[in-house]
Amino acid sequence: MPFLNLFKSSNVLETKVKEVFANPPTLETTRLKLVKISPEHAEDMYSYSCDPDVTRYLTWSCHSSVKETERYIKLLQKKYTAGVFNDWGLVHKQTGKFIGTCGFTSFDYENNTAEIGYVLSKDYWGQGLAAEAAECVMEFGFDNFGLSGFCAKCMEGNDASMRVMQKAGMSFENIYKNGMFIKGSYKTIIVYSVTKEKYYSLKG
What we know:
Blueprint: H1 3-22, E1 27-28, E2 32-35, H2 42-49, H3 52-55, H4 66-82, E3 87-92, E4 98-108, E5 113-120, H5 129-145, E6 149-155, H6 159-167, E7 171-182, E8 185-195, H7 196-203
Parallel strand pairs: 5-6
Antiparallel strand pairs: 1-2, 2-3, 3-4, 4-5, 6-8, 7-8
Helix pairs in contact: 2-4
């Protein structure tokens, strides 16, 4: 593709992403609703964001108080409005609890791909919910943004996250020794990925 056309295409995608996340649509899976994160979710978000088991392999540290979570969600409202925050909150249909987040960590506009990320309350681990949310987000990206593929990353040792990637159809791509400096030390980063064609061929 000529450079000028590639530049135009990436600009169109970037504009569309900003427009969508200025007021993100509610999505649904069998067990989850994916919603815009709002101030009403602060207490539920804090309940898992203060858990060291949840944040162990994340780039951010535990929230120290509900007030910190409230401030964070308030900041997110500005980021949504600016179209620069690309996550949904996860609401468990059966319990009505806000149990985590899932969305687009970043976009590679030139290559028409994106990275996804997810966080889930420990109370809901081991039920396949993170993979269910990840697949919903990926399919939204394929269908609405025309993306050609996805990747996801985790720190070495985060076997649960690797299982989520695998359940979502991703395959091992690479490992980066001391790839990121996180919480005071270098961490080894593992990358999984999948193309649109491979994803849908696996889903039948």
